[in-house]
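Box 3.1 A note on notation
Throughout this textbook, protein chains are presented in two layers. The first layer is the amino acid sequence; the second is a token string describing backbone geometry. Keep the layers aligned when reading.
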Amino acid sequence: MRRMSGLWILLSASWLWAQTSPGPELVLDVNAQSDAVAARGWPLLIRTVVISADGTPVSLVLKSGVWTQALSLTVTDQNGASQSWPVQLVQPASANLSLSGINTAEAVWLVAPASTASIAAGTYSLSATLDTTSTAAGGAWSGSAVSSGAAVTMEDEPASLSSEDEATKYLAFAAYARLKGDTQGAGSALDTLIARQPSMLEAYKEKADLLASAGNYADALTLYQQTLTNFLAANPNAAEPLTALTRPIEAMYARIAQQQASAGGAVTSVAPGRIDPAVAPDSIVNAYGSDLATGTVVASGAPTTTLGGTTVTITDSAGVSAAAPIFFVSSAQVNYAAPASLALGAATVTVKAGDGTSHSGPVTVVDVEPAVFVLNAAGLVAADIVRLTDAGQQVYENVYALDASNNIIAAPVDVSADQVYLVLYATGIRRASQSQVTVSIGGVNAPVSYAGAQGFYTGFDQVNVQLPASLAGRGDVPVVLSVGSNHANTARITFK
């Protein structure tokens, strides 16, 4: 028997670049494999990933109903005879789809353990068809697409399972239970696997995801951290951060801070994308809490010390209070600029809403607290590309594009010719010397030609780096900005 590869949470990523023809393309797998082996009495998760075949926007909207109504599944045995399996299609998160080179979708059919127990031993071929020729709404994609083939061999469970087969079994049971809404069953399967195989990273990651989805952020954080520690111990020379774990860790810190702020009425101030309550003078800060403003307001021009009736005051370690310019206010979040005059050390942030409601919280003022701005939830770095051609021209390009729904997506960067520079935007670094600032892209050090104040927007910093030609063809990679040993939040960039 063979084991499922990779974490369930990461399955979709492997198909992003399998692009061969225009329109949607379907990739099928069973229990995370295109050629799977499963025991009778184990659950089956039959998944089709839907992508835009050439990266261009594709809209999947039906005249009525959800898009999965246009999907059908075909199963044949080793003799080519059609089979009728009792499959259950999981309800999709959205009725419509907007595909692009980054945005994908998936549909999952479940076969219950009790049902697989009655499937005869043998090898079965599966395919999925997406057909909207008669059901597509006006302006949406109309046509038919057939998935890549997948196969599953059903056999009796052996008396003794190898460690890989054991992992396959319990991860499948956990994923099946989670998709059925049975969190207790999913947790039980993962706990069993962890007890049997304490070094199994997938089990810890899945258990942490399960806890996070239930709102148990503290225990989820502990498991994410434990998984990351185990990964780094097993891979001490890893060139790139394991963002599948570092991002959830950052998210758990933020959610815990928000919970604590909401419960205790306190304000938590952090640099964008960071998790520690530390800020640098003359930098951008995100404050979280509750009842911080009476409405949502964005500054129309330069930040002002009163926005929508909300004010932010910081009292530093010298006992001096200063009003902070504000960019954005809402009930749960306020974005402001820490005054340049702040003394280092312990400080107190007070946010006062327009109705007089006031909340305070501690923060530590430090020399530098690097943070990189991102453009979307996927962490696409906020940056510009400057290309120096052989003719001496400077050509400016974007790292982003817009899909059919005007969502920001990555625009792959070409570094195969010319000298190409990345101009990324950050905050919290201007008090450091340029020699202290380093940038790693995909594990490759990029030479820094400038690091300091951006010079136009309050609190914004800028870092210019030359992109090594060795990044060509790397695809999606992390961007890590550091000041000494102080690392900013990880961003992403995509290369052709």
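The domain at 1-157 is CATH 2.60.40.10 (Immunoglobulin-like). The CA atoms of residues 188 and 301 lie 54 Å apart.
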